[in-house]
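Lecture 7 notes: from sequence to structure.
We start with the chain below.
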Amino acid sequence: MKLIKKHLIILFISFLLFLVILNIYKPIFSAKSIIFPYSISKFDIVNKYPTLWNNIKNIYCINCFITIYLAINSFQKFISIIQIKHLKKSKPEIIAKNDGLNLLLGTNDNNNIYLNEKGLFQNILVTGTIGSRKNIFCNVSFTKTITRI
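Predicted structure tokens for the same chain:
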């Protein structure tokens, strides 16, 4: 249902933009004569080939609407991908403290972040620039956890 609602909104916005574009090109669509001076012999496409001119206008309108719809849909998907990536970066994984051994890594927004017991038996990579106290951070975290037991 949410997907249908999203596509209906995109269709409505596409239709509004399509009406704006038709309003901009209204003088061309309602012209009584359009002369092509760049051909071998000048001719009026509206009077000489009226069915061809109507077909050109119809194909233009259909292609214009489809292009607007696809552009808005692609833009919406692009924005949603950026939002998803932003949400993944901004929310760290917080492991709830369970009954086993947990290593307190620090706090984030007044929530304690723990490394559970299973993670303690794996390799741990601590990165940082020179002098950022990586060893002190790791040693203090392990020491505090061991002394609490």
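Points to note: The beta strands are 35-36, 43-44, 102-108, 111-116. The helical segments are 2-24, 26-29, 45-48, 50-90, 117-120, 134-148.
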